[in-house]
Amino acid sequence: MAGDSARERARRTREKAERLQRSAEKWEKGAEGEARTAEVLAAGLGPGWTVLHDVRWPGRQRANVDHVAVGPTGIFVIDSKNWSGRIALADGVLLQNGRRRQWAVDGCADAASAVALRLPDLTAQVEPVLCFTRDDPMHERSRGVLLCSTATLIELLTSRPTVWDAHDVRQVVDRVRSLEIVETEVPVKDSRRRRAAAATQAPQRQREPLPPSRTQPQRRRRRAWVARAVVGLLAWLVLCSVAFQTLSPFAREADAPELLFVVYLLLALAIVSALVPRRRRRRRPR
Prior knowledge:
The protein has two domains: 23-182, no CATH class; 219-275. A hairpin with a 2-residue loop joins strand 2 and strand 3. It has helices spanning 4-44, 102-118, 153-158, 166-178, 191-201, 215-254, 258-275; strands at 50-56, 64-71, 74-81, 87-90, 93-96, 99-100, 126-132, 139-142, 145-149. The chain has a six-stranded mixed sheet, sandwiched between helices. A three-stranded antiparallel sheet has the order 4-5-6, with helices on one face. The protein is of the alpha+beta class. The chain contains seven helices and nine strands, in the order H-E-E-E-E-E-E-H-E-E-E-H-H-H-H-H.
């Protein structure tokens, strides 16, 4: 039907636009959750605390940590989640509306581990926190990750045992800030990046021209030979028919039936000699 390809293209484009729209809505919802968590931290923590937002994930180029709070009770790597529905913990596994969401716990733990690796002498004071944007109180723990809501976040941070004074906190803050500017060497996994890196290190070799292929000329010669054979056969049949109609009365009068056979043979030899390609002689250089 006319227009089917255009309709199919429009359908695929519309589906892609819907997927992008849903993805944009998720990012916007996540940004709202991070902003809400930042407001709670700014309003609830005292002057002895410093909170950094959108801290670059150590060791990764395109990942970031939502919040890092540094205070007298330690370093808290906070991941904000603006989820809807029922959030619960069953046998240490995080669930949202009955579905497993343990990947969020694992991601928060990995972020805290990345920060702790850059602060090896402060590993014991680095705590991962998964904070949900909601007013319901929440106090849980999964895989060493503290689970809370924005309603209980401040209480969670300030109720931990004190480990540093104000001077120590300032020094730790300076070290945490340095994580944002430290350049990390990430292993190249993409084949394109590998090729680009190899191209910058070693000069490119010029490829030698490939020898001409002999397959295509051979096929062309074979096809031409078959075509000539078919044309010659048809021509021989036509000429034999004409010769039979013309010479048969003379052959009967002369009582020489072998005359037609000789004529047919001569016609065949003439056609074959005309169709067989002749080799061109190469001229010798003078």
